[in-house]
Amino acid sequence: MEQINKAGYTTEVPEDRLSLIALLDEIGSGKIIFIGDVDSGKTTTVSYVANSLLSMGYKVAVVDSDVGQKSILPPGTVSLGILDRPVAHIGEAVPLAHYFIGTTTPSQYIGETVVGVKRLADIGSRIADFVLIDTTGFISGPGLELKRMKVELLRPDLVVFIGDSEDLRRLESSIGSLARVFHAEKSSLVKPHSHEERKLIRAAKWRTYFSGSKMVEVDLNEFLVSGTVMFTGRPLLQEEIELIGKLHEWIIFNGWKNREGYVVVKADPERPRPYNRSVIKAIDIEKLSNLLVGFIDEEGLCLGLGIIKWPKLSSGKLEILTPLADEELARAREIRFGRIRVTEEGEELELLRREEL
Predict the structure, then answer these.
(1) Do 175 and 245 reside in the same domain of the chain?
(2) Are 195 and 292 contained in the same domain?
(3) Can you tell me whether residue 240 is helix, strand or coil?
(4) pLDDT average per 10 residues of sequence, the chain (357 residues)
(5) Among 197, 207, 317, 339, which residue is least crowded by beta carbons within 10 Å?
(6) Angle at CA of residue 112, ends 108 and 118, nearest 5°
(7) Whole domain around residue 244: which residue ranges?
(8) Any domain includes 299
């Protein structure tokens, strides 16, 4: 069987975990954030705490915000799961709700990540005694700001710092009196994972999620489209498309005029030529191939993911591969564009910059 999670439940944990469980029992309920560096044992600790609290009779929910190494599928989202039984890994939690991020790195999506964690933690608080929030190992630079904003917005009942580093000390100083802090030792049993191992584990998760998918044709006129500058403003007239195409020797598939200028989706039959980027936002059609998208419901939550297989932009349609059932697709009100190109076999083709679409 493929490995799709880095770590699981174990009772071989540092002694301070017992003190942590005792403290949580004293607190009785609340939101708990777990923060640590890469390979510090955050998810293992969350699994241990979740199982311990379950055995004590508490209702437990988990918010999985580690978009790079997701436990609760699908990837590229922040997810809320409920634990209805002891689990070997938090990936076994019953998924209840997701918030679309659309990439495996949150560095350019700090706002979306914070909003997603806040919304799902609020939902979890209504159905569980404890909401355990697993985070990424992204704690330096913008990662520190991401964690600080999560704490500032959520006002958790406890922040669990796992390990000790200069970045964690800086983060603790930036939190100040916003939350109570518990210091936990990094387990000596934690196994470091290389970049390649992490990539292989992600690939297995993509394959697992998209297994059994089907192709659906989406008419973009029936949906709100977000996460891109495309489809904003008025559609270009045919003569405008022909003129811009002729001037730049582009094949243009569709385009729009907005307050900032022109947006076109194009291909370069010849080698790329320079153009005025302050007037024209040109998006290469290949950037849409195998692009991850989210199907969003009327509450702004993510019903599930899809992969664009054929962008039929001249007719305003997309051919999308998705595992969502017809009744789930019927609830979608919005298509949101992500920033990772990935195949259903788990091959990650490209991470796009936010401004590319």
Answers:
(1) no
(2) no
(3) helix
(4) 50 83 97 87 90 96 92 94 91 95 90 95 98 88 86 94 88 88 82 81 94 96 95 94 94 94 92 86 96 98 98 93 97 98 97 95
(5) 197
(6) 140
(7) 213-357
(8) yes
